[in-house]
Amino acid sequence: MLHTLQTIALILVSSNFVFAVPQIVPRAVTRFAAFGDSFAAGIGAGQPFTGSGPDSANNAGCGRFDGSFNVKLRDDAKVHAASFDFLACSGATAQDVQNSQLPHLDQSADFITVSMGGNNVGFGDIVNGCVYRFNGIFAPDCDQALNNASTRINNNPDFLDPVTNGLRAITAKAPNAKVYVMGYAKFWNATTTQCDNVSWNYWQTPGATKMTRALRQKMNDLLDAVNNKISTAVQGLNNPRVTFVNYDAYFQNHRFCEGGVNEPQGPNEDRPNMFFFQLNTPVGSVNSFVQPFSPASQYLDWIKAAKTASPNTPVNPIYAGLSTATSASGGLPLWIAKIFHPTSPGHVAISSAISGKIP
Ligand SMILES: *[C@@H]1O[C@H](CO)[C@@H](O)[C@H](O)[C@H]1NC(C)=O
Ligand SMILES: *[C@@H]1O[C@H](CO)[C@@H](O)[C@H](O)[C@H]1NC(C)=O
Ligand SMILES: *[C@@H]1O[C@H](CO)[C@@H](O)[C@H](O)[C@H]1NC(C)=O
Predict the structure, then answer these.
(1) What stretch or stretches form a coiled coil here (predicted)?
(2) Angle CA(296)–CA(42)–CA(333) in degrees, nearest 5?
């Protein structure tokens, strides 16, 4: 593509056009395809994505936002992609990436990012069971959710195999692409003490689980285990075109429960240095837009609607489902769907981490 543009520039110059030739920024990438889950889709970060592409009809249902690290990367000087296929979809497991997103991949793609595996683990159960307990006494048991996640991470048919298979299928279909595979970032600062005595329980029921150092550490350890498995999957491919990007260090000092910060975030409180959404984190432009917010009644309205729509499906508000393409967050109200996902500044950090790996 670089050559094509240079050729065009030469033609323009040699044809003696009288008007100034617009400055042409070289394009390093011809076709960029972005695969993955809600982290890749950028749910809640910036504005809902309106670009075109092979799966653009599904933009709203997939919770794709223009603050995603993928959109930032598309415009990065090292990428500056001529075309961009935003295939990532909130709620996607590694199997969903292979079955539902891969068919849209154009084999001429020369630059690919992938963020997958998080939905194979059940982090939503952990956030619901151990942190917010949206479903009250029906929320998942915290210890069970942690144990089940750990079991899945270490059970190859649940995690390593589908991630490996998905990556194999992607590299096979786009044989010339450089592929950057994301890990995930740890949510908590697990060494500070101020959260030990604080519950993030949505209903603030007496005796609710507190965000102790031990609990925060357990969640962080699971994240490290996930990153290690994804790294193992990448190494197992033994393919020099595939690079693992662990961006966790970029989130240092930008997690929950950082020193001197009172948790959880209150309504109307701006926290541009925090790289993950909480319930009260404003959506969109972090510094200006604050949603009107009435958590309990909003949740009850939502759960009533979800139960009416599909009476037999257990509802976990953390998961942005693939099925109902009715809102910008896959059928879920954005104030829930965004929780524990990167904010716009978080996505800038992820984009920098990937850019730093591009030669
Ligand atoms: C954990 O796994 C067990 C066994 O599959 C299951 O019965 C239980 O509902 C799971 N609990 C959570 C919170 O995921
Ligand atoms: C923890 O909170 C309880 C109730 O709010 C309070 O009585 C206690 O002093 C707090 N402990 C610490 C170490 O802050
Ligand atoms: C946690 O907070 C402390 C106190 O602000 C800080 O020194 C430390 O770097 C933070 N991060 C981690 C991972 O402990």
Answers:
(1) none
(2) 25
- Name the packing angle between helices 213-237 and 142-154 (round to 10°): 20
pLDDT value at position 349?
Answer: 97
Task: State in Å: Cα 282 to ligand 3 middle.
Answer: 24
Average pLDDT over residues 46-73: 88
Q: Model confidence over 230-285: pLDDT tens digits? A: 999 999 999 999 999 999 999 999 999 999 999 998 877 878 899 999 988 877 53
What does pTM read for this prediction? 0.84
> Which of 126, 144, 146, 151 has most ligand 1 atoms within 8 Å of its beta carbon, as the pocket-test mutant?
144
In the chain, the N- to C-terminal Cα span, in Å, equals 17
Determine if ligand 1 sits within 6 Å of the CB of residue 143.
no
Question: Nearest bound ligand to CA 194?
Answer: 2
Could you tell me the pLDDT band of residue 311, with boundaries at 50, 70 and 90?
low
So where are the chain's domains?
A: 26-355
Distance between CA 162 and CA 98 in Å, rounded?
9
Report CA(262)–ligand 2 centroid distance (Å): 14
CA angle 274, 278, 284 (to 5 degrees): 75
For ligand 3, atom 6, the nearest C-alpha belongs to: 259
Query: Is the Cβ–Cβ distance between 250 and 353 less than 8 Å?
Result: yes
CATH architecture of residue range(s) 26-355: 3-Layer(aba) Sandwich (3.40)
pLDDT tens column, 163-203 = 999 999 999 999 999 999 999 999 999 999 999 999 999 88
Measured from the Cα of 140, ligand 1's closest atom is 13
> Beta strand 83-86 with 31-36: parallel, antiparallel or unpaired?
parallel
